[in-house]
Amino acid sequence: QVQLVESGGGLVQAGGSLRLSCASSTRTCSSCAMGWFRQAPGKEREFVAAINWNGGDSDYADSVKGRFAISRDNAKNTVYLQMNSLKPEDTAIYYCAARLYAGLRYYTYEYAYWGQGTQVTVSS
Fold first, then answer.
1. Do the Cβ atoms of 103 and 40 come closer than 8 Å?
2. How far, in Å, are 9, 12, 19, 48, 88 from residue 72 at the CA level?
3. Phi-psi region at 101: left, alpha or beta (left = phi > 0; alpha = psi -120 to 50)
4. At 97, is the pLDDT very low, low, confident or very high (cuts 50, 70, 90)?
5. DSSP 8-class letter at 45
């Protein structure tokens, strides 16, 4: 069983930055594909970014390309999402997700493990 715990959310002004972290409870997830998703009130959960097991491949939603960066430190069992130039429309609960032994994944149903989420609020 893989447990994921997100942290780093908060309130920030438009144009500011935040770094989210997702810590895994097990070293097994050094072999996981990892993803970040977000869900705004009244909307479906949407893909934000994904990274493969060794960090050699990543991809982003068009809405965050050039502003967000996903990375991982397998020695620390942690995945990060650096968010720059934040906009009010980035306001959402951000979730990290994991899937064992996989490449990049883009859909919620492709991930087996989820964190509890961390709130990001961007004020205008």
1. no
2. 17, 23, 12, 15, 26
3. left
4. very high
5. -
